[in-house]
Amino acid sequence: MTIPATKKVAFLLLIAASFFLGACSDSGEIIQTRFEFKIKELNDGEYPDNPDIGYRHDNYTTNAFKKGYLVRIKDSYSFAFHLTSGDSITFTNFNAINFIPETPEHLKKDHYLNKLALVNQEWNRNQVKFLPGEFKCGNKKIARVDIARNCLNSYLWEVILYQKQGDKVLPYAHGWFNFPKEKYRELFNERNDDAFEPLKEHLENWHDPESRFVNKTLLREYVGEVEIAYEDLSDTLYPLKAARRKKRKEVIWPKQYDSMRELQSDSSTFATFSPPGFYNKNDPRHTELGRFKYLSGLHAYDTWSIQNRRGVLELEFNFDDPETGRMTRLFIGGLNAGDFPYLSPEDANEGWKSSMGFGNHSFYESLSEFNAHNTAKSNYYAYLTDGDGNWLDSHKVGIDGPIFYWDDENPQLLHVWLLSFERHALIGHYTILFSTKTN
């Protein structure tokens, strides 16, 4: 029997569609392998507080993306982005599953720390940079692609394209998309023993976990205190370079300031981060940054990691506010001091940084850093407590995490800076002098 040409074309299209959208399991079951999502772009009228304005490519466009796909490749997942130009972007050596929060193995036995780990990972941005050779695109002008799981809820993600302009690589297009909801929940449950439903309100609607005592003995094994001398340098201003320069306009109050001490006030407010993932000065984010005005003590401890029995550093900052009676403790631990670069204070923004939480990826990573980070085996933690050791929500207080580097002129002098809410500013600078170089 001869098949008419029109029916033959339709038949071939059906075969092609089944190839791209699904595959057969050994039992003959159709397994979906491609999940389509829409990509939204915002113009300057829709996003007037965009920190990239003035720092992006001259040919910046809000009509770059046609649609996107989450693509299953055997046991891993990747993305494909289709552009209005007819080009598409795909990725190599990348598994999107690693974006999804996962509890460090040594914390799983504690219900509260398990919750804090998963919620804080979801509440912190993780943006990964792909350079030529790490992605494929027919448009060779695309010099870099970033994918971000933003901090608002499980499903809100971003994609950013960059092109070269002179000797700089600048943002060329920015899209916002929703990770396919049911697939996200499925992958989250696979990584975390069906934990999504009990944590749904935290992961989808930013519902604060309850404040309870944090059991430090589950985080590390105490060895002993390290002799140090420390200094609070917050009466100076941080270097207005790189991201801090772009984001200066996101600081609502104080309008003018000459030191970080002026930011250490409960009156400090910032542009909040609103769905689908943009800064919004019409909804000011209030803080409790006055908690950091009075540093009363700083301690360094030698500790052993629970998981791999290696020596790691822990720092404890004590802030006691005589005006309100509030006591605030900042703990940062699981630190390998050998990971910190040697820099001058002018280059503080280039230091080693991470977010508040347990086992987190950093805010911004190269693909190699992203692939190397094993959340399940991570020793890292950074969290706030009150004077009784009960957890405080760092986002509500107004800090996002620390920056570390060794002084480029004194290899025993460690610099620690504190990033404000959404990393709009730096709100504290401390130096720690070790009597001997720590590991």
Overview in brief:
This protein is mainly beta and about 450 residues long. It has helices spanning about 5-20, 110-120, 180-190, 200-205, 240-245, 365-370, 395; strands spanning about 20-25, 30, 35, 40, 65-75, 75-85, 90, 125-130, 135, 140-150, 155-165, 170-180, 220-225, 230, 250-255, 270-275, 280-285, 295-305, 310-320, 325-335, 340-345, 350-355, 355-360, 365, 380-385, 390, 400-405, 415-420, 425-435.
Walk me through what this model shows:
The protein is mainly beta and 439 residues long. Helices cover 14% and strands 39% of the residues. The strands form six sheets. Strands 13, 18, 19, 20, 23, 25 and 26 form a seven-stranded antiparallel sheet that branches. Strands 4-12-11-10-8-24 form a six-stranded mixed sheet. Strands 14, 21, 22, 27, 28 and 29 form a six-stranded mixed sheet that branches. The N and C termini lie far apart (78 Å). The relative contact order is 0.14.
